[in-house]
Each structure stands twice: as C-alpha cells, then as structure tokens.
Design goal:
Chain A: GO terms for molecular function: oxidoreductase activity. The complex is a heterodimer of chains A (742) and B (152). Chain A has 742 residues and is an alpha+beta fold. In chain A, 29% of the residues lie in helices and 21% in strands. Chain A is globular. Chain B is 38% helix and 14% strand. Chain B is built from five helices and five strands, in the order E-E-H-E-E-E-H-H-H-H. In chain B, strands 2-1-5-3-4 form a five-stranded mixed β-sheet, sandwiched between helices. In chain B, helix 2 packs across helix 5 and helix 3 packs across helix 4. Classes of the chains: A alpha+beta (742), B alpha+beta (152).
C-alpha cells in the first residue's frame, strides 16, 4: 500500500476535514475524540473505547498507556499484528520513553475508534504501507514521555524534591535520598495531575531499548504454545460455522439451488442465500463442508470472464504500445533521445496475478444481538470494516463493535476496500438471525480453495520499455509504458487517482531515486471482473523487477560493473547508494564465484526505506534456480528493533522468492486454475536461502520494514541468472522457464 | 461414538468416524492450537502426533486415532518438546504464528527420532510445513539450538 499524505485517505473516504497531526489530548481521549470534525464526517461511533476506559485506580494518561496499581503497564496497540512485529515495535517505543520495565509490559489491541487510533499516515484507522512504526514514532514517544513526566511529578510532590532530581529506570522511580517507588505506587497520584504539554523527548543517545536487542517479541510464547487466539479459534456460546458455495467463475450468477440434500446432512442448521453465494451453516466445519458438497447449484456462466490469462496478456501488450495512456511523467525529449541513442534495449515484461495465500484462510465471526452487530476478526482496516459491516447489517456505524484478533498472515489481503471477509460474515449472521434459533454468532470460514480462487490479487501487469544508451554507455533515453488494473479505481480511494494515474501502479518506476534522462512514463489501467488488491510491497512488486533488471542489462551493454553503474545514477541519493555499497561489501560483490554459481544485485527504495540485496544463485538439476545466499543491507532510519528488522528482511526474502520462483494465478473462462498449495506453490524450508542482514545505524526517523525487503529479491536473482545462463527473464515466475548454464 | 486418547486423556466424541481428525480436535474437543491451513495435507499447519509420529490431522479420518495416542501442541511435555519450544521463544522464530504449532510438532517428532539432525534431516522432516512468513531461517536455527541443549 502506498504511503498517503497526511489525512489523504481519511479525506478520500468521506471526511471533509483532514485530521491534524496532533498529540493526543486527555480531553479528546475522554470524549473519545467526539469533538473532531473527522469523526462526525465519517459518522463513526462517538464512544470512548471500552478497553481504554479509565477503570478503578488505573492511571490512564492517554489512549495508549494504562498503569495498574500492581505496576503492570498495558500498552494499547493501534496497529494490526499480522506477524510483522508491529506490536513489539510500538511497545518498545512506548517503553523507551516511559522507562518501563519490559518484563511488566502487557498489550491490548485498540478497539475501532478512528479519531483516537487512526494511522497518522492515512487519516483512517488501518495498517499497511509499512507505516506502523513510522506514523507512530512521534505520537508514541510523546505518549510515553508525557506519562513518565506525570509519574515524575507525582514522585516529586510526594517526596518534596525537584522533578530534575528524580530518575526513572526499568519501571522504578528513584529520589535523591534513596526514595524508591514502582509505577503502580504513584499511579493514583499521577492520575490527578494535569497532562503536561511539550514534554521533552529522550536524547537518542540515552535509549536503552530502541536500537538494542532486549525487547523480544511479545507474542512468541503464545504463538509457540498454541495459545494465540486467531479468528478461527474464537469460541462463543452457540457459535455456528458456515462455508459459502461461491460462484465458480468471476461474473457467474446463481440460477437455482436445491438444498434438500444439504439440509439433510447431520449438523447442518441453515442454508441461506447471501450476496456471496449460498451459505451452509452448521455445528462445525466438517458438517458445513459436507452440506456444501450436497448442494445442487446451477450457475449462469454467460457473463464469466476474463477469457484467459494469455488473452489478457495479448490485450495488455497491445495497449502498452498504444497511445492514449495517462502520463505519470511527461517528457517531450524521449523520442529524439531514443533516436539518437547508440544502443537500445527494448523489452516487454509480463507479470501474473498473485494470491496472498496467507496461512489462515479468510474468516470472520459475526453476531447480531441487542440491536448491534459484533464481529471478531483480523480487522486490518477497522475504519473500513466498521463502515461496511454497518452497511451490510443495516445499522448505523456506532452499532458495530469490532473485536480485533491477530491474523494468521495478511500480506495486504485483510486490508481491502470492500471488507469482503467481514461483510460476508455479517450477511450470513443477518440472514440466519431471521430464522428460528438463528440469533447466534456464526463464523464464516473460507477454505483454502475459496481463499485462493476469490480474487483480490496482485494485478496482472505488462511493462513495455525502450532504453537508449549513449556511446559511453550512459543512459540517454527512457520510454516506459505500464498496463494493469488500478487497485484504487472503483474503491473509496478512487479520488486519490490523479490525472488517470494510480500511483500504486507506477511507484518505483516513477518517481525513482535514479537520475534517469527525463523519462516518459505512461499508464493504461484496464478494468477486469477480477478484483485487484495490494500485495506485500504493492507496485514495487513489478516495477522494481523492471527497473533493476533493465539497469543491469544497461550496465552489461555498457561493459560496466552493475554496482558502479547504479552508483553513478545515485550521486544525489546517499542513503540509496549507502545500502548498495554496504550490500556489495558484505556480500563480497565481484568475488570469483565457483563454476555454476553467479552473483546478482538489486537495490530499491520503497515505503521510505532503502534495501539492497546481493544474491548467490546456482541451478538445480531440473533447470530451476537455487538461491543459496542473500546479503541484505537496509536503511530504515532509527532501527527500533534490530532483531525484528532482520526477521522482516528474512521473511521478505522468502516471500519474494516464492513469488519469483512459482507465483502465478491463471484464469480460464473466468475461473481460477490454481486451488491450493499443490498448484500455487510457495517456498518450503529446503529452498530458503541463508540470509545475512546488515542494518545501517541511521539517526533518521524510522521507516517501514514489512514490505521493502520484497522488491529487490526477484530482480537480483534474475540478474544472477542472466550472468549464469545468458538469458534475460521477461516473464515471471521463473518456473515458466528452464535454465541452462551458458 | 469414538473414543480418542488425546494428550493422555480418553475422550468420547459423537462424530462421524470419517470426520477428519483435525475437526474432531478443534470443533469437538475444543483444542484450537492445531490449525486448518489447506485441508489436503499440503501445508502441515494441522500436524499432530499419533503414537509419537507426525501426522496431518486434516487428512486422517478420526476413526484411525481409535486405540492410538494423539498428542497436540497443548499436550507437549517431553524434554525434546520443551527444548524446541524454548529455542523457538529464545530466537523469536514466530511471525504471524499460524503455522508454528505444526512446525513445532514436526520439529519435536524429528528430535525425538533423531537427536542430532543434519540440515538435510531438517529439510526432510519439515518440508511438509509451509510458513508464508518464511521464518525457515530461524526454524532451522531453533532446531539446531534445541538439539544442542538436549545433548548437553
């Protein structure tokens, strides 16, 4: 997901007033932010978040911190935990400024409350675009420091000393004469004090947690013992399970249904029609599946589409050379530059649809009760999920209560502009609520096949590029045409499309940190019956591949070193050049490789983070690449949790490699060919390379790491393969090709 | 009626004997540490031990568990299991965590059969367990660490 300007997304989805970047005020918190125009414009519930409400003697100085009398510190986490470690990172920032005892830190996930818990990069409550740490950094530092200042004031008053004489370390407050108190002992007194403004933040040189290794993941124990609770694990009295018989092709319409055999299956309680298909609701997953199998359904396939993946590529290739595209960057000089070039590279690239294939297939529990609708799910985008759940239930948004659980992966899938998994659960809950015995909670669980065949893919793309080189090998012209569905078109975010350009389709080609010779970048955004969605690193999934393989090819043609060639184009980009040099240095760039093995390199800037990778690749006996080692250099500003940054770089390498090697969703007559992990292959342990991560020790504000490690991987491997085999890969995945050593 | 010995306790379950063991464990016995990921023995999220051997419970009919001993992540207690879980926590292996019960069940079965596994042994034993977060690098390291502590 792209990074939005402050408030852009909030504005796009209906807010008339862009939210201000502000510190959270106690007054606003107590009112649940009811006073802000943003909340009114969005018609969001104007209630204080239940879990953050002051209770008993708890000290609740702001929306993010509670301190109990027993000194337990609870941090309220406004971002969604899908595995990327945001929970631990955000807690680290709060604990740092508060000087809390990490061993006494607990966390809670924030309720849906856009004014209080909005992502300051979006203006809406939601997680994506690798923004969790970046947008929270100033906000949570202030929240932690303000809380600390109030505890210090309470201690100063009690001990009758100056606040400057008081020290705080690991949850213990100490006075000059040996006085000592734990947070809980001063919580009640601190709660009575006014909330100070403009509290100074720590000098980074005094950090004890940020940038260190002490803060381990807060969810490791629960997730290593089977105790973590996901949507699939929710238990409620009377809870039923539903699966939905869905259209067999995009655009298919239900003609008729015979549910008599399904209703006869033991354990099946209800069969109901919903906009998504026919839901079979049962006492458990197995009877629901048996019931679904017993349905006799007749579908009208006359409007099914698209025709096929190959037909789409043929259309896209034609569009790529047609005029009339939207200009992401207009240059009058390109045609003349290319004509005068000494050498030209012409390339057409093809990228398939990609499924997210997160381990937990999409699911949501919904329950209409007491005039409200309550849901339990991995709500990655609460602002959207709340509004769409309200619409589906026919209730005002303040009658929606979202309970957010951790997700078994998302990679973009759970943040979407339709809230599909939430809406279908509400639809089923609403349909059964009208039937006798149906006023019960229901979990709509997608099977792996439902999840994989349901659309919401990284769109299929074609790039057609002409690159001109001067006699000395320098870039002399760049003409670039991109074809692919817009992720934002037809969604509440469509107003962010500027002059026909959805930035998420072109990001990484334009803008680019490289000093390109005033390139022409055009975009065609055809529509399809398949819904597109962001997929870990969004536009950069394809743009980085094109840019980094073309620059590599240009360097080869210019008979120059691939790293040196790029560095010459990055003279004004010290941070990008920095990671490239670091990866080259640590990865032993240019060292002599044994026969049958080659190095490849790529560097890319995405989500305000710079990542370079040097890979070592050989060929397996079956002609497929084996990526043996990946050296990663990353500059993401202040490294809040170095070990979690490493974990994200490792994970991004594995995720990017899976897509590069095998990732492909194909369509025939509107139906998806792939169905499960046997034909939509993902990475397994034997194919995971050794990953060696080097983090730049930066003082810049922290930026994201959940996505930026993905884009460089595929082009780095392709560049190594070109060296090894002489072949330039223009179509992904690699599994479509058989490689031979040159 | 099915009698299933699970985590040392015999439980009586009113389910069709052909119900996959996974759904009996989750929906009938209420043990949710064992996860559904694919339903066709491709991803390993549902791995449990049946008489000490790893099995994909999504593809094993429940009647097969009759007269045998089933262990889920909730019932792990052996020294190898403790070493594996400790290493998992020490190295912060998990990310989204959804596959990790299955990964751990496979790792424990491996160490119980082979206390000093090689990388090749790990590939063989864990290749049926998918992790979309690709925590494989740390899974391997944690298995080696657990093996080292068991040896010591």
């Amino acid at each position: 997901m792209r990074i939005f300007e402050d408030g852009q997304l909030g504005a796009a989805i209906g807010a008339t007033e862009a939210p201000q970047r502000e510190g959270l005020k106690r007054r606003d918190f107590l009112k649940g932010g009811a006073a802000t125009g943003f909340a009114l414009a969005l018609q969001l519930p104007l209630v204080a978040p239940a879990s953050a409400a002051p209770a008993g003697a708890e000290f609740v100085p702001n929306a993010f911190v509670h301190i109990a009398p027993d000194s337990t510190v609870t941090f309220v986490i406004k971002h969604h935990e899908m595995g990327q470690g945001a929970t631990t990172g955000l807690a680290t920032i709060l604990a740092e400024e508060l000087d809390a005892d990490w061993a006494n830190v607990k966390i809670e996930y924030a309720p849906a409350n856009t004014p209080v818990y909005k992502n300051l990069a979006f203006g809406a409550q939601g997680t994506g675009g690798s923004t969790s740490i970046a947008n929270s950094w100033p906000q949570l530092r202030e929240a932690g420091a303000t809380t600390r200042a109030m505890l210090v004031s309470a201690a100063a008053q009690k001990w009758k000393v100056a606040p400057e004489q008081i020290k705080v370390s690991s949850g213990v407050i100490s006075g000059p004469a040996g006085q000592s108190a734990k947070f809980g002992e001063l919580a009640a007194a601190a709660a009575k004090l006014p909330v100070p403004k403009n509290v100074p933040l720590k000098d980074p040189k005094n950090f004890v947690l940020v940038g260190k290794q002490q803060t381990r993941r807060l969810d490791s124990i629960a997730k290593s013992t089977g105790k973590a609770q996901y949507t699939i694990d929710v238990k409620l009295p009377g809870l039923l399970t539903a699966v939905i018989a869905r259209p067999p092709a995009f655009g298919a319409k239900l003609k008729s249904v015979d549910d008599s055999a399904a209703k006869a299956v033991k354990g099946v309680k209800f069969v109901v029609k919903v906009p998504e298909g026919v839901a079979v609701v049962a006492t458990g997953m197995w009877p629901a599946l048996q019931g679904r199998k017993a349905l006799k359904l007749d579908w009208d396939l006359s409007a099914a589409g698209p025709k096929s993946t190959e037909a789409m590529f043929a259309d896209y290739r034609k569009l790529a050379s047609a005029s009339g595209g939207a200009s992401a960057n207009r240059s009058e000089q390109t045609a003349a530059q290319l004509q005068g070039a000494a050498n030209t590279i012409e390339a057409v690239y093809e990228f398939p649809y990609l499924a997210h294939a997160a381990m937990e297939p999409m699911n949501c529990v919904a329950w209409l009760h007491d005039g409200i609708v309550e849901t339990w799910s991995g709500h990655q985008f609460p602002t959207f999920d709340q509004q769409f759940a309200a619409k589906a239930a026919g209730l005002p948004p303040e009658k929606v209560k979202l309970n957010t659980l951790v997700s078994g992966g998302s990679f973009g899938r759970r943040a979407n502009s339709w809230s599909d998994f939430t809406v279908e659960a509400v639809n089923v809950a609403k349909a059964i609520s009208k039937l006798p015995g149906g006023k019960v909670p229901v979990r709509v669980q997608q099977t792996r096949e439902d999840d994989m065949r349901g659309g919401l893919y990284r769109p299929q793309y074609v790039h057609a590029v002409k690159v001109g080189l001067a006699k000395d090998g320098k870039l002399a012209g760049w003409q670039h045409s991109i074809v692919g569905q817009s992720i934002m078109a037809g969604t509440p975010m469509a107003s962010l499309i500027k002059d026909g350009v959805d930035e998420t389709s072109v990001e990484g080609v334009w803008p680019t940190p490289y000093a390109l010779p005033s390139p022409s970048v055009e975009l065609h955004s055809p529509t399809q019956a398949v819904r597109p969605l962001w997929w870990r690193s969004v536009g950069h999934t394809h743009t980085a591949f094109v840019m980094e393989t073309l620059l590599d090819e240009a360097a080869t043609l210019a008979k120059q070193d691939a790293v040196a060639y790029r560095l010459a184009l990055l003279e004004k980009q010290p941070r990008m050049a920095g990671v490239l040099k670091l990866a080259a240095d640590k990865g032993g760039w240019g060292k002599k490789m044994p026969k049958g093995k080659a190095q490849g390199v790529a560097v890319h800037f995405s989500f305000n983070t710079y990542v370079a990778q040097v890979v070592e690749v050989s060929l397996k006996p079956d002609g497929q690449p084996r990526v043996e080692r990946v050296t990663v250099a990353v500059d993401c500003g202040v490294p809040v949790n170095p070990d979690q940054i490493k974990a994200q770089m490792e994970g991004c390498v594995g995720f990017g490699l899976a897509a590069a090697l095998y990732g492909e969703i194909e369509i025939e007559n509107g139906a998806v060919k792939q169905s499960n992990y046997h034909d939509y292959k993902v990475l397994r342990i034997q194919d995971m390379p050794v990953v060696d991560v080097h983090i730049v020790n930066s003082q810049e504000a922290p930026t994201g790491v959940g996505e930026p490690g993905v884009p460089p991987l595929a082009p780095a491997v392709a560049n190594a393969l070109a060296k090894l085999t002489g072949e330039r890969v223009r179509r992904l995945p690699f599994a479509r090709h058989t490689f031979k050593s040159a | 009626m099915l009698n299933i010995k699970i985590n040392g306790e015999v439980r009586e379950v009113d389910a069709d004997p052909y119900t996959p063991l996974l759904w009996v464990i989750r929906d009938e016995l209420g043990l949710t540490g064992t996860k559904y990921g694919c339903g066709v023995a491709q991803c390993g999220a549902c791995t449990v031990h049946v008489d000490g051997k790893p099995m994909r419970s999504c593809s094993a009919p429940a009647y097969m568990a009759g007269g045998r001993s089933v262990t889920t992540i909730e019932g792990l207690s052996s020294p190898a299991a403790k070493a594996v879980q400790k290493a998992w926590i020490d190295l912060d292996v998990v990310q989204c965590g959804y596959c990790q019960s299955g990964q751990i069940m496979s790792a424990v079965a491996l160490l119980e059969a082979k206390p000093k596994p090689t990388d090749e042994d790990i590939n063989h034993a864990l290749s049926g367990n998918i992790c979309r977060c690709a925590t494989y690098h740390r899974i391997r390291a944690a298995i080696h660490q657990a093996a080292a502590t068991l040896k010591a």
